Amino acid sequence: MANFAKPDVPRFSVDVYQNEYLPEGGSQVDAIVTVTATGGGTLGGALTTPGRPSAAVAVMVDCSGSMDHPPAKMRGAREATAAAIDTLRDGTRFAVVGGTHVAQEVYPGGGRLAVADPTTREQAKQALRRLSAGGGTAIGTWLRLADRLLSAADVTIRHGILLTDGRNEHESPADLRATLDACAGRFTCDARGVGTDWDVKEVTGIASALLGTADIVADPAGLAADFTRMMETAMGKEVADVALRVWTPVGAAIRFVKQVAPAVEDLTHRRTEAGPRAGDYPTGSWGDESRDYHLSVTVPPAGLGQEMLAARVSLVVPQPDGTVQNLGAQGLVRAVWTDDMAASTAMSPQVAHYTGQAELAQVIQQGIDMRKAGDFDGATAKLGRAVQLANASGNADTAKLLAKVVDVVDAATGTVRLKTRVTEADEMTLETRSTKTVRVKK
After folding, report:
1. Is the pLDDT at 6 greater than 50, yes or no?
2. Is 418 exposed, middle or buried (0-12, 13-18, 19+ CB in 10 A)?
3. How much is the pTM?
């Protein structure tokens, strides 16, 4: 069993990178906002209650009939869940859910959560050995059971881990969407697809809606290591429900708010109003980490030499009594109008980098969709542009994945040829990981 000392509550900081200069008549302001959480405990008990368990975790394991084809998938799922349970910190509340066309409590049962200790870990692993494959797939029922179990726990962090090997064939897309809408903001969830018979957009959509990660584990033998990493990350989270609060002045409007590192995630439509000219954008749970956000604002044009505050960014956490806890970190986005053409036309290196990374994610998705639809010329053009962007930004991991789908003739110009034979695993890996980005070069 891994031994995890409880880290101090993180201290948050906000840094803003932008070119604040606009030409006469200019109205678009772009900035990269870097949010960093580091251990320090300076927030005291504002975010956690002494003696209160810090986390509750529900592991949802696909037990549908297809998990027995080949049997290595079911075996790998049992071993991976056991490894995740071994990684739980003592005192963590946890449950295991078996998922088919219905959701079943595998451990501990009775509509409750177990408390992690040597005894309950062993009991959970014994229960896992009795898991067998049979039935259909209705992922929404798994998530709703996980939500009921997790919501009963008086904890800081609520997290799910979901494993599936197939498509959500026993409930409608509308039912799954309604479930995701109901669960959003109640717990975060990492989703994994094992093998190659699952739907990438379905699994990544679950992770996106619940502010978690998504990935492919093509070989079931890799599940245990992946589950261990996921649980280690979950055990490192200390602050839940952090929101990026953005205030804009009269006349200004938000164009978009996107997370751009470690992965691209558009948060614009998730805004909730937070008072006059302010809105909150959810970012999920935080441990010791750093993330980058692209904020784009339209402001009223002003005269040369004029300056204005285009946006103010802060971090807040909702409290049980309906108030919010301000995390004490703030960043300012400015706009200054100038007739200096060199100043007003220069693009911030950070903004330029992440604009390219967002385009990279988009053209990969477009290229794969075109390839599946038989539009090979369009796919070649889009994936060629992806190769060019990955090469220019130093995104070596994505470049390697692209090289399994296209033959690269010239990376700098994006000249490629589609490979005639591409394994399903390679194409799904590229699609699943297309939103992962690299940090801007300092």
Report:
1. no
2. middle
3. 0.93
